[in-house]
């Protein structure tokens, strides 16, 4: 990145802006000279060489900076595009990086008459898209290098990039002078910074670039920045990033002058070099998507690959014999590829999902379902909600299930007009399993087969937030959090459940139409959070799975329910967003589409991940 193409001459007091936004040309490469031979040499070596337009000297948004040369370019977007197009063609660059660190919101301290937030935003957007459409093919890479504080979801800059992502090859957030300080706090930490660099990076990947981490390049500063750091520390951060995003956009750094002898770059390149070509593979789908990223890890664990020399390394079947699943999974002895115990020695049974073992080829025809106990893997679930007033599922049905949610534990008796809420929030017990009966034998059978059986507390009958619903039984439970926790703990122990699912579809924001005196948004939010954490800490070990099954509209980033789950993620085993009654309709629009729904299910899911 040749830094910078500018429309001023330098002055130590205040740069002298060109009133017509004439950009100096040719742009110096280094040592204030146009060393075209260097550009040609670099490109001949396969490197991409871009010219970076902007930088701090054009004007910065931080306190104490008085430069305002960007404002002389507002309204002259086509003139800027034309000049940069000429520069790229004449100096044989591969594209343009936009390094804009100035104001763009309404009400900020612009200096020139006619400047405003809308004018600034139009400038950024028009130049970005205009350059992409104007520069010659093969020389039209467009990148941005904003400060991290300008790339939070509430900022207009963020929205500009999101809305024009198809015109941007990649972005390079600066993780050294703003809200995150990974060189001090580490990739996942805060302290010196107010937001972890990983949380920031993860949001950019998921929300702007549909999960494609190759579009986000991690930014470092070697020296003289608030978050500067040496090569080994930067390499450590990139190593952590690789664990979460094995195929990412790599790193950038400011500035080559401080990379003495290439020592900083060599440390970081040792981490990024093995990933070269990671994004190559099958022809991508036409929708602008990429595989969903590895979930955000509180403490990342590296992916373990099976040894390539193992002749069994075609992982299509993981059934092995043993006296228990743990025995089978640890010794990886005799495979039972048909999924039946008759393949095993006397005293042993066939167990599935032994993922500590290398896979063995599946036989032909397709193997039948194993008759011996199947141990649930928490990464390959098929979860069925069982309405406890409905017919019990048959063996033909439940043979496919890994988890069963008994729906619902409630504190009302049903009435077709309005359910009769128990004023003390006493939960009916024992909870019926199906056909309105406590069929404990079914629970015991399912658990003996390795299935997880949870009781789901709540459901629509407790109260819903949609128009026309008049049930409000949740409100009689507000303030009685410990009573709810104690009752559910007793139910789990007595009925041998594996945990509790919370199915809350009621109000939780301020100003919503609560019906009972004393109810409010803060009271509702306290209820959800206290019960979630309290159950996790109270239920017996081995029976303390906690899940949530909210409507998708309640899991947007601006909602308080989203924030409750985010803040208490360590108390939640998994969540099950409902993609059928809310803002996304994948069964109509497909996973990536909108139309019947207002948001694609993939965008929603990806943000949660």
Automatic annotation (TrEMBL):
Gene3D superfamilies named among the record's database cross-references: Glycosidases
Keyword set, alphabetical order: Glycosidase, Hydrolase
Molecular function GO labels: hydrolase activity, hydrolyzing O-glycosyl compounds
GO biological process, alphabetically ordered: carbohydrate metabolic process
InterPro entries linked to this entry: GH, Glyco_hydro18_cat, Glyco_hydro_18_chit_AS
A Pfam family this chain is assigned to: Glyco_hydro_18
Keyword Secreted: no
Transmembrane domains' residue ranges: none
Record bears the keyword Lyase: no
Domain of life from the UniProt record: Eukaryota
SUPFAM superfamilies, A to Z: (Trans)glycosidases
Domain GH18 intervals: 380-609
Name of the molecule in the record: GH18 domain-containing protein
Species of origin: Trieres chinensis (Marine centric diatom)
């Amino acid at each position: 990145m040749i830094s910078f193409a500018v429309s001023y001459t330098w002055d130590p007091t205040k740069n002298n802006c060109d009133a017509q936004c004439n950009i100096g040309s040719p742009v110096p490469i280094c040592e204030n000279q146009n060393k075209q031979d260097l550009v040609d040499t670099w490109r001949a070596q396969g490197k991409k060489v871009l010219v970076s337009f902007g930088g701090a000297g054009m004007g910065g948004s931080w306190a104490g900076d008085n430069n305002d040369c960007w404002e002389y370019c507002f309204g002259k977007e086509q003139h800027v595009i034309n000049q940069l197009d000429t520069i790229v063609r004449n100096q044989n660059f591969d594209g343009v990086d936009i390094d804009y660190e100035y104001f763009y919101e309404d009400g900020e301290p612009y200096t020139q008459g006619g400047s405003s937030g809308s004018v600034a935003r139009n400038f950024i957007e028009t130049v970005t898209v205009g350059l992409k459409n104007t520069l010659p093919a093969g020389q039209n890479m467009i990148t941005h290098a904003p400060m991290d504080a300008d790339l939070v979801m509430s900022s207009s800059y963020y929205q500009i990039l999101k809305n024009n992502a198809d015109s941007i090859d990649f972005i390079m957030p600066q993780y050294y002078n703003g809200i995150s300080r990974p060189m001090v706090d580490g990739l996942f930490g805060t302290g010196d910074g107010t937001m972890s660099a990983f949380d920031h990076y993860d949001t950019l990947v998921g929300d702007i670039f549909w999960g494609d981490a190759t579009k986000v390049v991690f930014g470092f500063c070697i020296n003289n920045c608030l978050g500067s750091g040496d090569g080994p520390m930067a390499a450590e951060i990139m190593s952590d990033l690789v664990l979460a995003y094995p195929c990412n956009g790599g790193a950038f750094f400011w500035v080559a002058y401080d990379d003495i002898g290439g020592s900083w770059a060599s440390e970081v390149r040792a981490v990024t070099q093995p990933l070269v070509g990671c994004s190559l593979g099958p022809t991508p789908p036409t929708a602008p998507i990429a595989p969903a990223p590895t979930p955000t890890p509180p403490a990342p664990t590296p992916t373990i690959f099976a040894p390539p020399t193992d002749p069994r390394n075609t992982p299509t079947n993981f059934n092995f014999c043993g006296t228990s699943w743990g025995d089978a999974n640890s010794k990886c002895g005799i495979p039972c590829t048909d999924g039946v115990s008759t393949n095993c020695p006397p005293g042993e049974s066939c167990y599935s999902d032994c993922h500590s073992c290398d896979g063995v080829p599946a036989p032909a025809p397709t193997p039948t379902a194993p008759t011996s106990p199947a141990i649930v893997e928490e990464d390959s679930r098929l979860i069925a909600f069982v309405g406890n007033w409905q017919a019990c599922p048959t063996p033909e049905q439940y043979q496919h299930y890994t988890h069963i949610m008994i729906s619902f534990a409630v504190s009302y008796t049903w009435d077709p007009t309005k359910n009769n809420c128990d004023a003390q929030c006493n939960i009916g017990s024992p909870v019926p399993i199906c056909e309105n009966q406590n069929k404990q034998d079914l629970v015991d059978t399912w658990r003996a087969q390795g299935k997880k059986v949870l009781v789901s507390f709540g459901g629509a009958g407790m109260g819903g937030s949609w128009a026309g619903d008049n049930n409000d039984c949740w409100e009689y439970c507000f303030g009685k959090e410990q009573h709810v926790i104690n009752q559910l703990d007793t139910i789990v122990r007595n009925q041998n459940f594996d945990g509790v699912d919370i199915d809350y579809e009621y109000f939780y924001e301020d100003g919503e139409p609560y019906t009972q005196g004393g109810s409010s948004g803060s009271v509702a939010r306290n209820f959800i959070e206290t019960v979630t954490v309290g159950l996790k800490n109270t239920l017996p070990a081995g029976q303390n799975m906690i899940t949530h099954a909210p409507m998708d509209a309640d899991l947007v980033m601006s909602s308080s329910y989203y924030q409750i789950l985010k803040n208490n993620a360590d108390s939640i085993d998994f969540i099950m967003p409902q993609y059928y009654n809310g803002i996304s309709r994948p069964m109509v629009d497909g996973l990536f589409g909108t139309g019947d729904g207002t948001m694609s299910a993939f965008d929603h899911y990806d943000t949660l991940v």
